[in-house]
Design a protein that fits this description.
With 875 residues, the protein is an alpha+beta fold. Helix content is 37%, strand content 15%. The strands form 9 sheets. The chain has a 5-stranded mixed sheet with strand order 3-5-4-6-7, with helices on both faces. It starts with a strand and ends in a 24-residue tail after the last strand.
């Protein structure tokens, strides 16, 4: 930990100590070593006079946060943050002690047991301080401000320490920072002052040197405001691909070529390693681009290394929060909803890109973990699982060879231990963390078993051991529902459901979305931040709006249901009205009606969570494409311009913003090099109504004549004529019939190909609904043509002139003798080199008799079902 240092700030003498490290607040933050015994068992509860349940409850008993409720029987006279506490501090002229943590923070629990349950320490706190406890997940605004304050304090003190949780800050009665740290032990240790000593020093300086203390507090408050001030009005930068490329290069600079990972520093190679989904998403989005090989290789190496490591739960699915070592072997064991939501989507997208079965397995198992262990019966998602059991971090997850043998029997145990690393050195003091030290193919070869046999036997062993583990003492569960994190999970479920063809995932996303939009909104439609036990509270932050809109847009893409698009538009309009910066542009983190703190923050740094501004730009781009409303494009452009200088200065710190810029440039290539100053956006946008779908023309009666439909063209936005052709003169029960969907595209226009490139645009897609169960087998979409746009390196994949989509209609036996009613629906979006129309759905319905099995058929329209090279071209 290093020797303690006496730090003098305007007369304040305070011993600083080494701090526990519960994770970075930004990618650039350096890890500070955890206290001795990190990962071990908790020391005994010194000075505790009575069990917590037998002591009177304090004010936190009225709260809903599980973290705050853990402190409800401390002898400390805790206040929640609010007017009551701040007024008491000013009335009594006592300094504030502010403690910020969260329910799955291991060292928060240690400090609660060692310090806040200590009767002597609690008496001193109650006599000389107003004590406030905050759940950082409920109040990220307070956490941001005072985490910045403690870092300012360390910098002014010339201390190398970094921030972390629990965050322990001393404030003036007005809320200005005096001094702080993170974890404090109860008593002085060699080289480390105890919390009682720190309390005494602060009280002494407050009573004898108050004028200088307040001067120091004002100095630090000013520095906090400066750091958190929105970016200054810098000269506009052109929104070009170069900014994206620099962000990609910056992310690759943090790549660990030996063990995978995008959070690596060669100067500190053994510091903890985080998954950083934002960087993974940006690099994965480069697939298919020229010179993307290194980016894709880094993603695949990292995804495979994490899935094989101890950071992944090989029995129950899902990821722990970070790895304590470079090799991903021993995790910090808490499980967070936001990590698992993001990583499930990343692995699903990796499966879509590669068809690698292991990626699909990780995505599905991660989602199953959330649905099994973090889902409220009404559909919302809980926040986290704790890391400790009876004061021992990781005890719930680890195993011994003896227990494995006892549970599985000697023969199966030998296979399991060889596969999951129990034949390797033990890296964690409390037991073996399951991991894959080698591939299952390699293990199968060593054991002289077929790989498929080994995999099937291991699957059954995992099931048995998961049942054993589930019978262990349960982990503390933070069952509050956060709007923002639920938005991420809704988006992940919808996206994975679409990619993996899992309608059950999409259904779970819809149920969660209904939960959030009905239970976490007030009577005016404004969002709340958190819900628990039937009570929603705290006005929403930017992240809540942005993440939820992201989830609803993914749900719209998966279902086509217009209600999710309409809800997204309403929420974005509310977000703009409440959070938009009219003078400098971009979105503030807090709304116009939020309480005033030391600073009103506005940033775009993408850490373990993407920033609200970054997610908002992606949402706005998608809404502009889906609706054709230029207001959304303008907001996206203005936000990008605000943060373009920040991207240029620190490209690796804004990977999600770079991804948003990439999508913006693809959608609106005509603006790729424009550097004109942005214009003001309206503060209260008025929703633009979405036009009704085109009405299909009636098909001619009497059998296999071609069906044709031309949508109404009075708006000038319908650019495709659709014709359906059968390949034989009748449908036959129990057999399949060829079908061709021919799309003639207006001159100068194109439709997005299927699969699309870029991936987020709306592909051309054909579906069919029927009365008697006839199915359209997977249609064969032709390859798109590269369409290059000035200023964009990656070509779009498009259809032009005429495109023919082939499929087969599979008719059920029970339809024999019936008249089948068929409705074909074409979903498409037409664009030219300047703009895109609103997405369209065109339907064509008709009836066709179904003949009995074995009825002879005659081929018709043969030229459409010939090879593409000899098909007739558009007239």
């Amino acid at each position: 930990m290093g020797a303690p240092r006496i730090v003098w700030l305007a007369g304040l003498s305070l011993l600083l100590i080494g701090c526990s490290w519960e994770g970075p607040t930004a990618f650039s933050q350096e890890a500070t070593p955890a206290p001795a015994g990190a990962g071990g068992s908790t020391p005994p509860r010194e000075g505790q006079a009575a069990p917590p349940a037998q002591r009177p409850a304090n004010r936190l008993a009225r709260e809903t946060s599980p973290y705050l409720l853990l402190h409800a029987h401390n002898p400390v006279d805790w206040y929640p943050w609010g007017p009551e506490a701040l007024e008491a501090a000013q009335r009594e002229q006592k300094p504030i002690f502010l403690s910020i943590g969260y329910s799955s923070c291991f060292w928060c629990h240690v400090m609660e047991r060692e310090v806040f349950e200590n009767e002597e320490i609690a008496r001193y706190m109650n006599e000389h301080f107003i004590n406030i406890k905050v759940d950082r997940e409920e109040r990220p605004d307070l956490d941001d401000v005072y985490m910045t304050a403690v870092q300012v304090y360390f910098q002014l003190a010339n201390s190398p320490q970094g921030g972390g949780w629990p965050l322990s800050m001393f404030l003036t009665p007005q809320g200005k920072p005096i001094a702080g740290g993170t974890y404090f032990p109860p008593r002085d240790l060699p080289g480390r002052p105890g919390f009682l000593t720190v309390l005494q020093r602060v009280h002494e300086q407050w009573t004898t040197n108050r004028e200088n203390i307040e001067r120091t507090a004002e100095l630090m408050a000013g520095e906090v405001r400066r750091i958190l001030r929105p970016p200054p009005d810098l000269p506009a930068l052109p929104l070009t691909r170069r900014l994206v490329d620099e962000a990609v290069t910056g992310c690759l600079a943090h790549y660990d070529p030996e063990f995978g990972g995008l959070d690596f520093s060669s100067q500190q190679p053994h510091r903890p390693k985080f998954p950083v989904p934002s960087r993974l998403s940006l690099l994965q989005a480069q697939a298919g681009r020229p010179e993307s090989e290194q980016a894709v290789e880094a993603v695949d190496h990292t995804l495979q290394a994490m899935a094989a490591g101890g950071i992944y739960d090989h029995l129950g699915g899902g990821f722990h929060r970070y790895s304590t070592d470079r090799q991903w072997r021993v995790p910090h064991f808490e499980k967070m909803l936001y990590d698992n939501a993001q990583l499930a989507a990343v692995y699903a997208e990796a499966f879509q890109r590669t068809s690698r079965r292991s990626y699909r397995q990780v995505a599905e198992e991660t989602i199953h973990f959330v649905l099994r262990e973090l889902t409220d019966p009404a559909g919302g998602f809980y926040s986290a699982l704790d890391a400790e059991t009876n004061g021992v971090e990781g005890a719930h997850y680890v195993w011994s060879p003896d227990e494995i043998t006892q549970r599985l029997g000697a023969a199966d145990a030998r296979l399991f231990m060889a596969a999951y690393g129990l034949d390797q050195p033990q890296f964690f003091e409390h037991g073996y963390v399951l991991l894959l030290p080698r591939s299952l193919d390699e293990t199968a070869a060593r054991l002289e078993l077929p790989a498929t046999d080994l995999e099937s036997r291991l699957a059954e062993m995992r099931r048995k051991l998961l049942a054993v583990r589930s019978a262990r003492p349960p982990l503390l569960k933070d069952d509050k529902v956060l709007t923002s994190w639920n938005g991420l999970m809704i988006g992940s479920l919808a996206r994975a459901g679409r990619i993996l063809n899992r309608p059950d995932f999409v259904q779970a996303a819809e149920q969660a979305a209904m939960f959030v939009v009905t239970r976490l909104r007030d009577d005016q439609g404004r969002l709340f931040r958190t819900w628990r036990g039937g009570q929603a509270k705290i006005g929403a932050y930017l992240d809540d709006y942005a993440y939820l809109v992201h989830g609803l847009l993914e749900l719209h893409a998966a279902t086509g249901d217009p209600k999710w698009l309409n809800a997204s538009r309403r929420l974005v309009d509310d977000q703009t009205a409440g959070f938009w910066d009219e003078q400098e542009h971009g979105f503030f983190f807090t709304s116009r009606t939020h309480e005033e703190l030391l600073a009103r923050t506005k940033d775009a740094y993408d850490s373990v969570l993407p920033s609200g501004n970054s997610v908002s730009v992606r949402n706005l781009v998608r809404l502009a494409i889906l609706t054709g409303d230029d207001r959304y494009r303008d907001l996206a452009r203005q936000t990008l311009r605000v943060f373009a200088p920040v991207m240029q200065r620190s490209p690796a710190s804004l990977p999600y913003m770079a991804l948003a810029l990439q999508e913006y440039l693809t959608a609106f290539p005509e603006e790729a090099s424009s550097a004109a100053p942005p214009t003001a956006a309206p503060s209260t946008p008025t929703p633009t109504p979405t036009p009704s779908p085109a009405t299909a023309a009636s098909p001619p009666a009497g059998g296999p004549s071609p069906w044709a439909v031309q949508p109404p063209d009075d708006s000038g936005k319908h650019k495709a004529r659709v014709t359906i052709y059968l390949g034989q003169d009748r449908l036959v029960a129990g057999e399949t019939t060829p079908v061709a969907v021919v799309i003639d595209i207006a001159e100068g226009w194109h439709l997005n190909a299927n699969p699309p490139r870029p991936e987020f645009v709306i592909p051309t897609e054909v579906t069919v609904t029927t009365k008697h169960g006839t199915e359209l087998t997977v249609p064969s979409y032709p390859a798109g043509r590269d369409f290059r746009v000035e200023g964009i390196d990656e070509p779009l994949s498009v259809y032009e002139q005429r495109v023919v989509i082939l499929g087969r209609l599979r008719v059920p036996l029970e339809a024999a003798g019936q008249t089948e009613e068929l409705t074909f629906t074409l979903r498409y979006q037409a664009c030219n080199d300047r703009t895109c129309t609103q997405p369209q759905r065109v339907s064509l319905s008709g009836t066709v008799p179904v003949s009995p099995p074995g009825t002879p058929v005659r081929a018709i329209n043969a030229e459409l079902f010939a090879p593409a090279s000899v098909r007739p071209q558009a007239p």
